[in-house]
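To illustrate this point, what follows is a protein record of this kind.

___
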Amino acid sequence: MDDKFKMILSACTEDRSNVIAKGQSAWSRRCGIDLLLKMLLVYINSIGLRHAPESTIYVDEIKNNNMVSNLRDTAEICDAEKATFICLNSYSPNRHIKMGVFWPIFKAVTLVVLSLPRVLSFIGSECTVNDSLARFLIKRMDNYVARIGYQHPFILMTDHHFYSTVIAMNDHATSAVLQHGLIGDARFFSPVRATYFYAWSKKSAVLVNSEKAVDAGTYKFSKLMRLEPKHYVESFADAKRVLLILSSSKTSEQISHRIEPLLNLQNRFGFKLLIKMHPGSLFSINELRDAVSTSDVELYKEEKIEAIDFDFAFIEQSTAALDVACLGTPYIVIDESLDSYFSEYQEMLPTASNPDELLRLTVEFSLTKYMPAYTSFLEQEIDNGQCRIDSLIHRLQNECGSTYGGRYGK
């Protein structure tokens, strides 16, 4: 193995270990069966009359509705019908890159045949990651990217997932990663492996702490800020539909602990309680249903926040605070950590660190009091919805076109 391949393998293995450490540690996950199926899907999606990409290539790797929506919106706004995708999570016959008929079929068949012994040899292994299969799949994706060519930039949802890492660390490909969450856990954004990191704001660009970080904004929030608020409540007593957005709670006990004070509030004020799971939740909708002690609650899993009808929100520390703030809906942050991302906002935003404080803040809530805090929060985190990604991507396209084969910003 040359040094560059060792670096890519090490990066992919590190990312895989982080996924497993989050609780996704089944044998099939450690073996990399899901990665094998993703590569197979890429070949299947690639079957069709071969044509070169006309514009930017968007890499759809993460199964997260919000992130997928942001990637698709970015593609639509920047490249419209010329946008081309590499889809690793779904069958996409129309916008996916087409590589002919014989080549992708041949690659799909040989992928299965050559992967089988690597999978079988991992049976019973206690290793964290199947290195043999990982090496094989890295080479396959690198070969796929080389066949596409390097005339167009790659836009990534992250550069800390397996195949996106392979693309980001390719010396011949120009790439940019879209910030997908608050800059908190460094494992999922540092180091920056792509050519550029398109941050949501000046603050995020500074937190990334990389010369590759650019204050670019995001269409995810600029779109939301253009929507008219559905409701207007001055105090919590005015709320009719209250949304709890879970992100840090992971067990039935933690969920019950979170819900209990809200059920007490529900008995007092008579609102309808709605609960939404985080896209990356490790518990199922059935486990959430079991943890809720009353049937008078609406549960949501995949729905976008803006598609839910609510007029007040309780938010465990997560990006959802930005979604809700952009919609102009009042909210209270629930943050029981001492060193979370939201710690700096505890004296500004309505933030509860325990059930008693949650009850007090809720009863005393005044929108007039906290509106300046919500406005300042949006200014710091997303530059009030400003977005410059369109011009930045077009600049990337010009760079690739004028200096074919090079890599920029390194």
